[in-house]
Write a structure and sequence with these properties.
402 residues; mainly alpha; elongated; 15 helices
Length: 402
């Protein structure tokens, strides 16, 4: 408002001459402009101080925090934190504690890979395991568990088991047992023939079925004419038919079942005694031959065979152990505790803090600063115009000599 009034008075007003000046002359316009400059100085200095402090704070936060989070390897702030919070000293303390526990400390001549916060951040972005991110191999190498079978004596015990295998001389049948088997071979079991049972035990014990005869007797009894003497004959025929049916059910049919079972038993016994051979004596001779061959194989090649089987068993057992150890090593070093989800949280916090808060904050105060910069030429112009407007015209009347 002061600037507008100053410009209006300066443009439209008369130049002051000191004699009957108007209220809105160029001098008044100059004073309005200087009053506006004074107000601008009061507000400009306060706003400029706030803007500078806010913009510098935002820029410092952007440079020290946001840029460090995005590019940790090129950040002096991360290097300072690494120097102040030296993680390698903590790792040395952990290594000392591990030496007192059951875990074996790394050899002193082993090269230790120093850990830095920047390396942790980059490794976590690569979705590596916690073992790789924190470089836990500095104080315990997971590869050392491959030596567990040797350290805990598993391999030594398996080798001792193979070396201690001794197969003594074996005698399956002594002389007395062979003699008894020879007596059995020459016994009457050699004369057992099953076909005689099959030939003699026919499927029909009676030549005709007794039930059929009984039915015929009943038919004849039904055809006998009635009469006093004929009734007695009719009753006798029916009684005989009843007896025949009873014999068929109670005697003939059970005997037929027992005959079938006896035939099956004789056939099975003949096959069992001969072991599928032509005679019982031949089966016994082959049995003795197989026993002698087995005894010779055990005594000659038994040691080698048992050692080979034991070696295959122990090798398979060791292979299972090493396979499990490889699984533990692979899972621990590459899969357990992957840092990808934590990296996603880290990136989300970075975007939410830097891109959504810090960048708009800095942009706002940068805009305010450019707006305040416009006041600088305004102040200079107002001072120049005020000086120009304050000049008065010379006295227009005649000069009087003193």
């Amino acid at each position: 408002m002061c600037l507008i009034c100053g410009l209006l008075c300066g443009i439209c007003g008369k130049r002051p001459d000191g004699y009957g000046d108007d209220c809105c002359n160029k001098g008044a316009g100059g004073r309005f402009l200087m009053f506006g400059v004074f107000i601008i100085f009061l507000t400009f200095s306060v706003m400029l101080a706030i803007t500078l402090v806010s913009f510098l704070a935002g820029s410092l936060f952007r440079r020290s925090v946001c840029d460090s989070l995005k590019q940790p390897h090129d950040s002096q702030m991360i290097d300072y934190i690494d120097t102040y919070f030296n993680l390698n000293k903590h790792y040395e303390r952990i290594g000392t504690q591990s030496a007192r526990s059951k875990w074996k400390q790394q050899a002193t001549n082993r090269k230790v890979d120093p850990i830095r916060i920047a390396d942790v951040i980059e490794s976590c972005r690569g979705n590596n395991s916690i073992y790789q991110v924190l470089k836990l191999s500095n104080f315990y190498d997971i590869q050392e568990i491959r030596q567990f079978p040797e350290e805990y004596g598993i391999t030594r015990e398996l080798e001792r088991l193979k070396n201690e295998i001794k197969v003594p001389t074996v005698q399956i049948l002594d002389d007395q047992a062979k003699k008894n088997i020879g007596i059995l071979r020459d016994s009457r079991l050699n004369d057992f023939v099953a076909y005689k049972f099959v030939e003699n035990l026919t499927s029909n014990i009676t030549q005709n079925n007794l039930n059929d005869i009984a039915n015929e007797l009943r038919k004849v009894a039904n055809k006998v004419p009635p009469g006093k003497d004929m009734n007695e004959i009719k009753v006798n025929l029916k009684n005989q038919a009843l007896h025949l049916s009873s014999y068929q059910y109670n005697l003939v049919e059970p005997m037929l079942r027992y005959t079938s079972e006896l035939v099956n038993l004789s056939t099975t016994l003949d096959h069992s005694l001969k072991f599928g051979r032509e005679s019982f004596a031949l089966a016994i001779d082959e049995f003795l031959t197989e026993i002698q061959a087995a005894e010779a194989y055990i005594n000659v090649q038994g040691q080698e065979f048992v050692v080979a089987v034991t070696s295959e068993l122990t090798d398979g057992f060791l292979e299972q152990i090493h396979g499990y150890l490889n699984l533990v090593i692979e899972s621990t070093s590459r899969h357990i505790g992957r840092c990808g989800p934590l990296s996603n949280v880290y990136e989300s916090m970075q975007v939410a803090t830097c891109n959504r808060i810090v960048d708009p904050f800095n942009g706002f105060w940068a805009g305010v600063g450019w707006c305040l910069a416009i006041f600088l030429p305004t102040i200079v112009l107002c001072v120049k115009l005020s000086t120009l407007y304050s000049k008065s015209d010379p006295y227009p009347g005649p000069l009087v000599e003193s």
